[in-house]
Amino acid sequence: MFSNAIVRKPCPEIVHGLSTAGMGEPDYDKALAQHAGYVEILQECGLRVTVLDGDSRYPDSTFVEDVAVCTPHCAIIANPGAPSRNGEKDGMRDVLRGFFDRIEDIRPPGTLEGGDVMMAGTHCYVGISERTNREGAGQLIKILQKYNMNGSLIPLKKMLHLKTGISYLERNNILMSGEFLDNAIFRRFNRISVDEEEGYAANSVWINGKVLVPMGHPGTKKNIEAAGYAAIEADVSEYRKLDGGLSCLSLRF
Predict the structure, then answer these.
(1) Residue 161 annotated to the active site
(2) Catalytic residue among 70, 74, 161, 217
(3) I need a labelling partner for 197 at 20 to 30 A (CA). Which of 81, 91, 110, 177 fits?
(4) How high is the pLDDT of residue 212?
């Protein structure tokens, strides 16, 4: 169960954020309103939410998940592989010190973004992507092993981040799409497939027994409910324009 979440408001410069989506610029005012709605949902799920101010130095800084990995034992400061985002990690260290006694670091030449890390119990699956390299993933696994956790590497073919296409929903259930559907490493899980046309919804978020689903993906929502979860829709259309999803907008622990 999660008790806390950390989020950061979008800054006006979000319109200049990184994107491969080809969906146009996000509307800043609409992004602000959607972010406020997201915070309300986190609170409804029982989380104490720390809301950080927007940081105009970093257009993508609202995607706080990429700058840290939070485990039950420690927080790990990531080393984002996107040069324009790397400085985001520095401000997060002081924030996390308010919650964690132990802070670990991913160090150059290793790169790692939290969107490439999916935790399933004591095991973390780590995507090897354009943003996370093998050195960074290896450092993460060594840190996890200090705390009796472990990890394995998942090379990505098409996805930006691992959690772009896969989400662990607890109770051995995993939501997946695209290149992960036939990956043998996930056979031990009960797999909930996401149709290609709803692939964006593969990034859904389990929070204390409920699952946040991006608005407008009825098939995925129905399948999640059929697996026994209460599904809550959240409108994050402006963040989709920047390759961002529901998990990207918070650190949950």
Answers:
(1) yes
(2) 161
(3) 81
(4) 98
Residue 2 near residue 248 (C-beta atoms within 8 A): no
124 is catalytic: no
Which residues touch 249 (CB under 8 Å, ≥6 apart)? 7, 35, 38, 62, 63, 64, 65, 236, 239
Please give the share of the chain, as a percent, with pLDDT higher than 70.
100
Catalytic residue among 11, 45, 70, 248: 248
Q: How many other CB atoms are found less than 10 A from the CB of residue 242?
A: 25
Q: Indicate whether this model's pTM tops 0.85.
A: yes
**Do residues 236 and 249 lie in contact, with contact meaning Cβ atoms separated by under 8 Å?**
yes
The 10 Å Cβ neighbour count of residue 102 is 13
